[in-house]
Amino acid sequence: MPIWRRRHCASGIILVEFVYRGGLLEGAGLRLRAVCGRAGVTLRKQEGDGATPVGVLRLLRVLYRADRVKAPKCGVPVEPISRADGWCDDVDDVAYNKPVRLPYAGRHEALWRDDGVYDVIGVLGWNVAPIVPGRGSAIFLHVATPDFAPTAGCVALELRDVLACLEAGLSAVVVLG
Q1: Where does the pLDDT of residue 14 fall: very low under 50, low under 70, confident under 90, or very high at 90 and above?
Q2: Distance CA 84, CA 170 (A)
Q3: Can you tell me the distance from the alpha carbon of 21 to that of 36, in angstroms, rounded to the nearest whole number?
Q4: Is the Cβ–Cβ distance between 90 and 106 less than 8 Å?
Q5: What is the average pLDDT value for the chain, to the nearest integer?
Q6: Backbone angles phi, psi at 167, to 5 degrees
Q7: DSSP letter, residue 40
Q8: What 8-state DSSP symbol labels residue 166?
Q9: How is 86-98 classified by DSSP, letter by letter?
Q10: What is the torsion angle, in degrees rounded to the nearest 10, for the CA atoms of residue 64, residue 65, residue 69 and residue 74?
Q11: DSSP string for residues in 129-165
Q12: pTM for the complete prediction?
């Protein structure tokens, strides 16, 4: 019996919660190699701890580099990124855990990267309603480095696997402890 669940959205797309546990992301009949944060998974996520939060992380939207990949097929809004896109991770900034336009004065990370890690970004619903400063920011589903190095707290897979999950209806990543 699979531990992931299927449900239908209004458009008729079958949405599937994928489960991350022990280096694997599973759902919709897929079983894929994945990597999480360098500090493993945690029930007590804090900004900069390098851990991936345990919980149901809903897929909110997908961002992508239109100069490198086609718009991914998925059940959430999709939008291209530009060189001016970033994400604020400054706990003292009003834009904490929100997208920002670069240049930006507060601490942030650029979403337009040369290494391909952010060629496709699934924005996951961690610390979003309400946003609590210091509880963690920029928790994404994204492309893994070629050596599958641990992330700063995100879940990462090979590019083809990120695209396959999205097309299969990924609606959330359920991170188990």
Answers
A1: confident
A2: 27
A3: 9
A4: yes
A5: 94
A6: -65, -30
A7: -
A8: H
A9: EEE--TTSTTTTS
A10: 10
A11: TT--TTS----EEEEPPTT---BSS-EEE-HHHHHHH
A12: 0.93
Instruction: Work out whether the CA dihedral 83, 77, 94, 156 comes out positive or negative.
Output: negative
- Is residue 107 within 8 Å of residue 93, measured between CB atoms? yes
Which alpha helices (DSSP H) does the chain contain, by range? Answer: 159-167
Q: Which two tokens stand for residue 30?
A: 């897929």
Helix (H) or strand (E) holding 7: strand 6-8
Amino acid symbol at 89: D
The DSSP H or E segment spanning 25 is: strand 24-27
The token duo for 141 is: 């589903």
> Where are the chain's structural domains?
6-175
Tokens of 139: 């928790």
Name residue 98's amino acid.
K
